[in-house]
Amino acid sequence: MSAIAGPASSSTPAPGFGRVLAIVAGSLLALLAAALTVGGIALAIAHLTLRDDDGFYTSPTERLETAGHALTGERLDLGDVRGPGMEIDDLGADVRIQARLADDGPVFVGIAPAAAVDRWLAGVAHAEVTDFDDDGPQLRAAPGTRAPERPADAGIWAASSTGAGERTVQWEPEGGRWSAVVLRADGRAGVAADVSVGARVPWLVWLGLGLLAAGLVLGAGAAATLTAALHTPAGPGGPAAGAAAAPPAAGDPAAAGSGAAAATTATAAAVPAAAHPVDLRAELDEPLSRWLWIVKPILVIPHAIVLAFLWIGFVVLTLVALPAILATGRYPRAMFDFNVGVLRWTWRVGFYSFAALGTDRYPPFTLGPADYPADIDVPYPEHLSRPLALLKPWLLVLPHALVLTAFHGWWQAQGWAPPGLATVLALVAGAVLLVRGRYPRDVFDLLVGIARWTLRVAAYAALMRDEYPPFRLGR
Questions:
Q1: How many CA atoms lie within 13 A of 283 on its CB side?
Q2: DSSP label at 102?
């Protein structure tokens, strides 16, 4: 059996499975609370700032043109209006359409059942507004050879207005499919009109306040859940996890001297002077099956599902830890232990699968240390730099991000994402293992080095250490 040794794992016990579930649940509650709060605030701001004097959320005025006889639009979309994207006929809102011909001639604006409009315009050249995007309104031309009858005589309109200048139609939507139509009052071809659509939704502000209240309640529940889950009580007869050992009694030089020597020896043994404090343990667990690596991506699906939730918790707790670090210079210990556990779990699953293919032993479902050939050690920092905490996640890791992009292939070229170096190396190792029944040791060392580099950067970006990750694959 070959091995790449790393520092001894931290002795701090990892959170139990019940606490893990509580932390994941609290993190999900916090995300949902944040989404509801942001949505409520957005609706409240829209209510206060985006309505006109009549209480309508109004779209920008758009110039619509067609060589045909009419402009039509079905299923008016409130996403085209300044405000939240919902279809108007699902809102129970008042609808307002304003239109003016470019030449200020007499214009007709009407709203009618879509089926009636389709019959009225059958065989008539017109244009239908299908969408609004960044390039403006999208129109679809409908061919025809005949001219429509005068719109005022059609007798199909639920609401209409006609005359020179700007005309306004206001209507309370009903069930079914409806169309809005703009054309010249005499039905002649060639229509160029400036059109805006608005909606008045009186209850939108109450929806916003309800979302805000729900977000605050869920936020309080998330805070209580995380506080309870992350509280690390003192064990019976001993200090809380992560607490320093009691100093020797005053007046006992021998004990003090031996204690200091022991502490110095332990520190030197745990973190060699030339090594980065974040390191991996990776033991090549030979012999390996020739073919099992082929199906490992399927076998790790249960772990992938759990890790998806654990990484949500990891991100949320990192965000929670940031203000604590800024205020105290310390990373809350229980949060730190949980995040180390997520990195440990991630490395074990990667070591089993395509991050290394280093063992055929199935990874355990635990955040804590275990009898497994892969592990990670992140010593707890007694003090963290406050200024660095603001710069690590987005600025200081950028040079490493460029290197890791090459390692892992986190980019796209013309819609295709080429594999990174780590994936290519893992496939090479698998192919050699399949043919020769032996894992190429040099490839193993490279894959472990890439994982070591990646996890050091992850720990640094997650504010867990102040030591800048080295640009190297080795310890």
A1: 12
A2: T
Separation of alpha carbons 113 and 176, rounded Å: 8
CA angle 316, 318, 324 (to 5 degrees): 115
Amino acid at site 127: A
Low-confidence ranges of the chain (pLDDT < 50): 1-12, 76-89, 234-273, 413-414
Domain boundaries along the sequence of the chain = 57-201, 279-461
The torsion angles phi and psi of 394, rounded to 5 degrees, stand at: -120, -25
Q: Does domain 57-201 have CATH number 2.60.120?
A: yes
Going 221 to 226 to 229 to 230, the CA torsion angle's sign is negative
Cβ neighbors of 239 (< 8 A, separation 6 or more) are 246
Beta-bridge partner residues of 140: 128
Q: Nearest-CA neighbor of 358 among 444, 434, 450, 420?
A: 444
Q: Starting from the edge strand earliest in sequence, which strands make up the sheet with 374-377, in order? A: 2-4, 279-284, 374-377
Q: Can you give the pLDDT at residue 133? A: 67
- DSSP category for residue 157: -
154: left (phi over 0), alpha (psi -120 to 50) or beta: alpha
Is the CA virtual torsion 43, 49, 54, 58 positive or negative?
A: negative
Category of 415 on φ-ψ map: left (φ > 0), alpha (ψ -120 to 50) or beta? left
Q: What is the dihedral of CA 47, 49, 50, 54, to 10 degrees?
A: 80
Any residues with CB less than 8 A from the CB of 279 and at least 6 apart, and which? Answer: 6, 7, 376, 377, 452, 475
Tokens 């932390």 — which residue?
Answer: 23
Among candidates 2, 4, 6, 3, which has minimal Cα distance to 275?
Answer: 6
**Distant-in-sequence, close-in-space partners of 350: CB < 8 Å, separation ≥ 6:** 356, 451
Please state the pTM of the whole predicted model. Answer: 0.58
Distance between CA atoms of residues 33 and 23, nearest Å:
15
204-230 vs 333-352: helix axis angle to the nearest 10? Answer: 90
**Considering the chain, what percentage of its residues have pLDDT values greater than 90?**
53
DSSP secondary structure letters along 373-431: SEEEE-PPPS---HHHHHHIIIIITHHHHHHHHHHHT---BTTB----HHHHHHHHHHH
Residues of 378-410 as b/e, b for ≥16 C-beta within 10 angstroms? bbbbeebeeeebeebeeebbeebeeebeebbbe
